[in-house]
Each structure stands twice: as C-alpha cells, then as structure tokens.
Amino acid sequence: MSVIDDLASEFTRLPGIGRKTAYRLTHYLLKIPPEEACRLARAIEAMAERVRRCSICNNLSESDPCEFCTNPTRDRTVICVVEEASDIAAIDGSGGYRGLYHVLGGCLSPLDGIGPEELNVDSLLARLNGEVREVIIATNPSVEGEATATYLHRAIGSRGVQVTRLARGLPVGGDLEYADGVTIAQALSGRRGM
Amino acid sequence: MKLGHLEPRGGLEKGRFFGYFYRVFLQRIQLRNFRNFEDETVDFPERGAALIGDNGQGKTNLLEAIYYLEIFRSFRGARDEQLIRFGTDHFRVEGSLVEAGGAEVTVAAAYRREGRRKKVTLNGDEPQRFGEAIGRIGAIVFTASDVEIVAGGPAARRRFLDIILSLVEPDYLAVLQRYRRILTQRNESLREGASPSELAAWNHGLVDAGCSIIEARARWVAEQRAGFARYYEKISGGQQASIDYAPSIPKPTGDRAAPIDRHGWIEAFHGRLQRLAERERRRGVTLAGPHRDELKFRVGNSSDAVGLRSFGSAGQQRTAAVALRMVEAETLRAALGGEPIIMLDDVFAELDPPRSERVVELLAAEEWGQVLVTSPKPSEFALMGDSLAEYRIAAGTLRRV
Fold first, then answer.
1. Whether the complex's predicted ipTM surpasses the cut of 0.85
2. Which GO terms fall under biological process for this protein (chain B) (predicted)?
3. What is the model's pTM?
4. Is the N or the C terminus of chain B less surrounded, counting Cβ atoms within 10 Å?
C-alpha cells in the first residue's frame, strides 16, 4: 500500500467519512503547500499528546484539573452533569451557566453494554461534599438519557442536594405552528404560571 | 347471488349505493418493481373498482401496495425486502389522491435493498417525521386472513390495536416506539442481571410510556364496544358478541363508576413490577406492560358467553373479524371527518351467502367512500351492483374491461 492509500484508510476511520471522501481529502492535502499539511499533522499530534481527562470532572483539557474546575470565578455550589465533554461547549457557549461540570462519558444503555459502572457516577457522588447545593442533570432527552437521569436522581437522592433536570419545550424564536407534536405536548405539560 | 337481493332499502335511492360524500379517493396508482408488478400505472374512478383475476396474478399485491401508502409497511406482515420484485433492487409506489375540494395529494414510498433505505414523500417532500405521512390516504383492508386477529395469538390483536391507534391518535406511534426501545433496554438489563437500582432507572420510562398506551387502548375499546356488538349482530343475523380489553396490568380498583385516571394506572403498573421483580430477575424478561395485553372476544348471551378464540366456530370468528374491520372503518371515519377508502380482498369467499349479503347491505347502508374489491370470479360482483368499473388482472398487468 502506498502512503496515499495509507492516509486515505486512516481518514475512513473518522465518523462520517467514506472511501470517496477519504481520497478527496488526501488529494486535497497533496495539492496544498507541504508546510500546510505538516501544520495539520502537528496540530493532530499536539492534541493527541496534550489533551487528557480532568481527574475531577472528566472533561477533556490540556490541564488537570481542567480550566473549569480550577477557575475561581465559577460557582462551586452547582454541578451540571452532561453525557459527553462536547456537551460542555454547547452549554457554556450559551452564557447562561457559571457553575461546574461533570462528564458521565455516555448514558445507560444495556444494549451497548453500558451500565452505571461504565459511567463516571462514583466520581460525581464523591464530589457532593457539602459545598454543592444543586446538581443539574443535562443528559439528552432520549430514552437512554432519561433513564440515566432517573438513575442519577435516585443515586444522589438522600444527600441533601437539590437535583434538577433541564426543561424541555419550544425553541426560542421558533414558530408554534412548525413545532412537532411531541415537543408541543412536552411544552404544555411543563407549562409555568405567570 | 343477485343484486335483486340487495336492492337498497330504507329509503336509499338507487345510484347512491356507496354514497356521494367522498372525502378522498385514489385516482392513480403507479407501481415499480412491487411484488409481481414491473411498471404499472392504473387510474381508478371515484366510485371504485372491481379487480378480477385468478389466484397468483397480483390482486392482493395491488391492495398491499395501496395500503403500503397508508402505514408504510405490508399489511400481510411481509418485510420490505420481500416486496421488491424478484431480480431487482428497489420498489416504488406512488398514489395520487383527490381530496374533497379537488386538491391533489401525492403520497409515495420507495425502498432500496442496498442500505435498507426507505423514502417516504408527501407531494414530493420528505416529512420531518414518519408519523406525518402515516394515515394520509385513509384506507381499510378487509382480507380473508383477518380471521387470524380473532383466532390467532395475542400479538395479532395488539398489532391491530397499534395500527388503528397510530392512525388516529397523534402521539400514539411515537410513544409506542419509545416504549419498545425502553422495553428492549430493560430486558437486556434483566438478562445481564443488573442491580435493582439500575433496573429501577428504566421503570419510570416504561411505566410512563406504557400507561399512555394502556390509556389509549382502554379508551378505544370502551368507545367501540357497542359498535362492535351492533355490527356483529347485524352480520350474524341476531347473534351476540362482545369485545373487551384485558390489560396485563390489573385494572386499578376503586369507584366502578368513576373513570380510571392515569394516576391509578401508574400506581398499578409500579405495583405490578414490584410484585414481579423476583420472577423477572429469574426469567430475564419484563413480565408486565402493554406488550402483554389482550383483546378478548366472546360470543353468546352475557350469562353463557364463551371465548371466541377457543370456542367460536370458524363462521363466528370470521364474522367477528369483519365486525372488527367495520369498527376500524368507523374509527377512521370519525378521525378523518370523511369516508375511508374500503378495500375488500376476496372476503366473500370465506363467508356464507347470507352473511356476505348482510356485509354488503351494511356497506350499502352507510356512506362509504371509494371501494376496491378483488375476486377470482366476476359473478361475485353481482353483490356490489353495477356501479363498479371492472378491471382484469393477469401476471402483474391490469386493464379496464
């Protein structure tokens, strides 16, 4: 196999990349100046070497503990629990949250062989040490995410910490007429007094 | 059997045999590589059609294709790849409907063996959810194999309930899919011997989705009980039969007069799971929930009524199956606010002549929409009057006579 085939077959291992796209990317990299291709290679190398799991919250970061866990301006009384590290970017990017995070590393799914032991549940419970007053569960609104939320709710249960779940409902700026039935039903059952 | 027996009665004037209040009718069906059809386009009149052909020529296949546009699955329970014509790699069905105001609607479905890709379009656009396109044509199929709903295993009865409720209740299908997903996960977790706390994490969703299904089924059966008894009585010529919902969760007790509320079902479901916990762990499957519900049919007077499935005669079972489809049509009619398309697949072959005639009388007495009937013999259509255009079907081709 040539080095071209080598690189293409590496690309096909990425999510959403098939054989054709892999060769297109490879040939693109052959066309651009060699130093640009090397810059990409170095970026991948640096990322693989330097990024690791935060030993407190399991977030991906260059430092351990991560920048959220060490930031003195963050609210240390709230922990937001997410399935994947990539969810943090979405929540933090909203600007509506200033607390800490905890990454579970997935959600309960017996079909995929994922039980509570495969998730970072124990390390979450270990963080509930008196300072934390609220745990916000921000798992996905899927069947598995809901079961995980129920599990965490019961596991945290008697520790004197308030457990909350992200609300579900209509998207901001959305048109009621175009929302699907399930979303509207959820928004109705979760309606609030004014 | 002559039309003479069936002169419309009760003040119905001639020519209104199947009514004029058509909500929607199938104007054209286009088939490509569907079962034994290679490339076939057929136009149907508003009133309906009689499809005549020997066995194995494609009569049922054609109705199967039309009903595929209603639920996007085979009514015969065939898998999608089995519907692809031998030696080809995909099939496509497209139906053009004319709605009450004259507006045309196109529903199409295609399935490709490679990648098992199914594509459904409404007027050329893919709907966001499958559920939006489901039930768009509004049709009912009466087939000889309907007797299996009554005489076969309970899964067939649950499937019947699930299809009709998916067609008329906006959220039923989504909840059913959620329930099935939770059930699979919970069963896997039981098989793996998961801890009670992990199992409990699935209970909440199982009970929540399960109770929505139970409520919908209980409501439907309660609403249709009288209609079923009435249709059975008419078709059988005065005999009695009943239909009852027997949920796997014991009905919550309490004031008999008061309707059972959701809260009652939720408590009953949780209680049942608690009592069965040990057995579930041993067996490794979920033992309570709507996936184990039953629909019970009984015949006879209430004092000496017997189970239709075990003790009913073949004739009684067929009659109950037809009555059940009549009730289904009534449900669909109420939901559509108009007439469903009625398809009769060789049903009269299985019923004795007096019952056949009474079925046709029922069809004639109510305002039905377009009717598509199949039979191997033209003589059968004397029953339906002269109002239906005749088509011959042979080896996957169809032509109007």
1. no
2. DNA replication; DNA synthesis involved in DNA repair; double-strand break repair; SOS response
3. 0.86
4. C
* A139 found inside a domain: yes
| Predicted pLDDT at B254 | 59
User: Per the domain annotation, does A118 fall within a domain?
Assistant: yes
| Confidence grade of residue B366 (pLDDT, cut at 50, 70, 90) | low
pLDDT at residue B367, rounded to an integer: 65
Asked whether residue A14 is assigned to any structural domain, the reply reads no
Q: Exposed, middle or buried: residue B212 (CB in 10 Å: 0-12, 13-18, 19+)?
A: buried
Write out pLDDT tens, residues B124-156.
999 887 778 888 889 999 998 999 999 999 999
Q: Which domain holds residue A150?
A: 72-194
pLDDT 10s digits, A126-147: 999 889 999 999 999 999 999 9
Ligand-binding annotation for B54, yes or no, is yes
CB contact under 8 A, A148 and B201: yes
**Which among A147, A155, A180 has CB closest to B129?**
A180
The length of chain B is: 401
- We report the CATH number of the domain holding residue A77 as 3.40.1360.10
pLDDT per position as a tens digit, B245-278? 999 998 877 555 555 678 899 999 999 999 999 9
Minimal C-alpha gap between B58 and chain A (Å): 38
A144 and B200 in contact by Cβ < 8 A?
no
Which of B189, B211, B280 best tests the A interface by mutation, with the highest count of A CBs <10 A? B189
- Consult the annotation and say whether B319 binds a ligand: no
Question: Does B189 lie at the interface with A, CB-CB under 8 angstroms?
Answer: yes
Best CA proximity match to B206, nearest among B182, B173, B172, B171? B182
* Start-to-end CA span in chain B (Å): 22
CA distance linking residue A130 with residue B263, whole number of Å: 36
In order of their start, the domains of chain B are 10-138+340-401 (3.40.50.300)
* Total count of domains within chain A: 1
CB contact under 8 A, A147 and B188: no
> Is residue B243 a contact partner of residue B228, using CB atoms and an 8 Å limit?
yes
